[in-house]
C-alpha cells in the first residue's frame, strides 16, 4: 500500500470515528500519523528528478573547457612516485637496522640508526613506502612476520635501495655479500612483501600466490623472478594510441586511457596534455578524437612526459600535496588532502583549478604528512557528518512540533466556526433533527431515511436540501450551513449529532475547541522541552565529537606508559616491568645511579625502579613502601592472596654480570650486598584518572604531591641467614666480598606469545662457543692422561666434590619444581598471560656455591676469561633489542609528571587524561578513584565499571567528563590492573543500597 492510499484510509477512519472523550487519544494518534505520512509524501515529491530537455541538449554540446573535478583521495603509489621516493630512501644508506615493528598485518616500520641520528622507514603492502617522522601506533606484540625480519636483517646496514626495472616494486638490500638479505615491497594490485636471501630465494612472504599468466609460484624457498620485471620504458606508437582511443567509451578521460600504455601515471600524462594546450581532464570523443592527427599530438605529449620523468629519475624532488578547504558547521575551514606528487603539475596551477597546493622540502615528507593526517581528516569528516546529523535532528523536532501546533490552531478555528454556523442556523438544524428523529421513532432504516431525504431534495424541500450526507455509524448527519450574516461566505459542511439539539451540538463544538486550545498549550510546553532536549543532546554529541577529534590530535604517549607505572605521593615516577624483557629494559636503560631498585622474593614479581630526580638525596620511606606494594601486587601474590615483604637496593648493588662473567638469562640480575626489607605490604591497589594540564596551571599544583613527613633515616631490616638454592656453577672462589651476593634468576618462560627466534649472530656465537668447549675438553683429556701421580688422592677429592654438587643440584631442582607447581595454581588466571606465559624468578646466594668442583688452574683461568668475554656480546644484543624511541625525553621526569594531576581545579586547562593503577594510598588525593583488591572479576569489566562510576560523579566539570568519556573507547584502560579483581568505592555501595 502506497503513502497516498494510507493517507486516504486514515482520513476515512477519522471521519468515521465518533468524537468524544473516549476516542480523543485515538483520534490524536491518527492525526499525528496523517501529518507524518503527508510529510513523507512531500519529501518524495521533492526528491523526484525533473528532466530539463534544454539542459540535456546543452550537455550534448561540446564544452570549451572542463573544470577539475575531485573524485577521491589518492590511495597508492604510481611509478613516478616510486622513482622520486628512491632518492629520499637512498639518503639512509649505511644506517643499521635497530628493530622492525608491525602497525597492522600489511604495514611495517624499520627503525634505523647511525651515530649522528635515527630514521624510520614505513611501508604498506600495495600502497606506499616512505621515511616517517611520526610516532605510529605499533602492535603490542610483534607478529611472526616482524620476528622473521628481526632475525634476518637486525643489526645489518641498509646497503642499497632500488626499483626493480620499471615495475612498482622496491628492493631494500640489508647487509653485503653472502650475508645480504632483500626486503621486496610490491606496490601494485593487492601488493606483497617478501624477504629473500642474497640469491633472491624467498625466506618469508606476506601473501603467497601463483601467477598463472607467467607460470610462477611466489612462495618460501622459491626464487623471486627478477627476469619477469619490465626494464624498458613503454612509449606507444601513434597506431597503438588510435586503437586504445577507438576502444574507449565516449567521455572517458584521456589520461586514464593513455596511462596503461606508459610507465608515467595519469597525473604526469594530464600535465603533459595541459602543457601542450589541451584542457585539464580532456575526454575522448569530446576534446580528442580517435584519429591519426590527435594520436600524434598525444604521442608528443608522451615524449614530453618522458622528459619530465627522466628529470625526476635523475634528481631528488620536492613534495606537493593538493587539498581543498571544507567548511565546517561553525564556519571554520577544514583541510581535506586529495593527492601527493613529486612535482607541481600544470593542471593544478591554472585559474580553473579547484585545489590548493602545499609544498615540502622533499617528496617523502609530503607523503608522510599526507598519510599521517589522512586518519585524522577522516575522523574530522565523520565528526562533521555527525554534527550535521545532530543539527538535522533538532530541525526535524522543530518542524514536527510546528506542524502539530499549526494543525491544532486550524482545528480550533474550524470548530469555532462550525459552532457559530450552528448557532446561526438553529431553527433549520432543529427542524432537520425533528424529521430524522421522527423517522427513527417510526423504526425506519437508515437506507429508508436516505431515500426519503433524496425525494425531499428532488421536491425542493429546504430542510432536505441542507442535508448533504450521513455518518450512520456515529449517528450523525452532515448539513450544509450558510452564513446568513455574510452571504459572500461559502456554506460549510457540519456534522450534526442526531441525539443532541442544535444548541447542544454547538456546545459540543465549543468544548472541542476548548480542548484543542488546551492541547495546543500542552503541545507548546512539550515542544519547548523537546526542542531544548534535542538541543542538549545535539550539543553533547558535538562536544563528544569535538573531544574525540581533539584527543586524536593531542593524544601523546609518554615513554613510561609501556611499563607498569604510577607517580608516588611524593612526586617520584615509579616504573615496573611487565615481563622479563621489560625488566631487562628498565634496568639497562632507565636505571640511573640515583635510582632505587625494588623487588620481592615472589614468583613473577616485577623489577620496580624508583626514578629519583634528586641526585644525592634519599628517596622518602613512603615512596619506598608504595614501590614495594607495587612489586608485590604485580606478582603471583595477587592471585594467591598472600601478603609478603619487598626489599630495595641501590644502583651499585645491581649488576647484569655474574662473578665469573657467566651469562645471566634475560631479566636476571646480580644483587650484591644486603637487601633492605620493607614493611609487609597489603594487596590493595587503586584505579584512578590523572589529567594532563597546561603549563600555566602547573603552578597551582606544586604542593599536591609534596612529602609531609620529616626525613628520617629508615630502619633497615637485614636479611636472614637462610640458605638459597644454587644454580650457578662457574664462580670465582677468590672473591672475598664480606656481604653476600644474590642472583635474581629467570626460571620460567617469559610472557611472550612465541619463543624468541635465534639470530644468525647468536648461532655463530653458539657454534664458536661449542668449538672452544670441545677444544678445552680435548686439552683436559690430554692432561689427564699425562697425570699419574696422586691419582688415588684425586679420585677421593673428586668424589667428595661430586657428592656436594649433587646435593646442591637436587636443592635447585626442588626449588624449580615448587615454582612450576605454583605456576599451575588454578587461580592464576591473569589476562594476557594465557598459554603458560607466566615467568618466574628466584633469589640464589653466591656464598652457597663456593665449594663446587673446580677444574685445574689452567683450564679454570681459560674458562673464566671466556665467560667474561661471552656476556659482553650477549649484553650488546639485549641492548639492541631494547631500543627506545624517547631517549631524549626519558631523563626529564619532573617536567612530565608535574603536568599530570589527580585533582584538577576549575580554572585548570585540561589537555588530556590517563588511567593510572597505583597503591591505593597513593590515590588518596585523587578526585576519581576506586579501590582494587584480589577478587573474581575480570579486568576489562572492572575498568568499565570504574569509568562508568566516574562519569556519574556530580561534581565533575564538563571538561573532565569529556576526557573521561573518551577513555570508554580506549581498549588499554584495563592493561595495568594486576589480575582478577574486586572493585570497591563509596559510590558503588550507595548505588547498591538504592537498589
Automatic annotation (TrEMBL):
Leader peptide range in chain numbering: none
Entry GO terms, CC: cytoplasm; nucleus; RQC complex
Skewed-composition ranges (Basic and acidic residues): 754-778, 847-856, 866-875
Record's compositionally biased regions (Basic residues): 779-796
InterPro entries on file: NFACT-C (IPR021846), NFACT_RNA-bd (IPR008532), RQC_Subunit_NEMF (IPR051608)
Coiled coil: 7-61, 374-411
Entry annotated with the keyword Cytoplasm: yes
Gene3D superfamilies cross-referenced by the UniProt entry: ibrinogen binding protein from staphylococcus aureus domain (2.30.310.10)
Recorded GO MF terms: ribosomal large subunit binding; tRNA binding
Domain NFACT protein C-terminal, first and last residues per copy: 892-984
Subcellular location: Cytoplasm; Nucleus
Keyword line: Coiled coil, Cytoplasm, Nucleus
Main subcellular location: cytoplasm
GO annotation (BP), single: ribosome-associated ubiquitin-dependent protein catabolic process
Domain NFACT RNA-binding: 562-673
Region of interest: Disordered: 751-806, 818-893
Family designation: Belongs to the NEMF family.
Entries under NCBIfam families matching the protein: RqcH_arch (NF041120)
Stated name of the protein: NFACT RNA-binding domain-containing protein
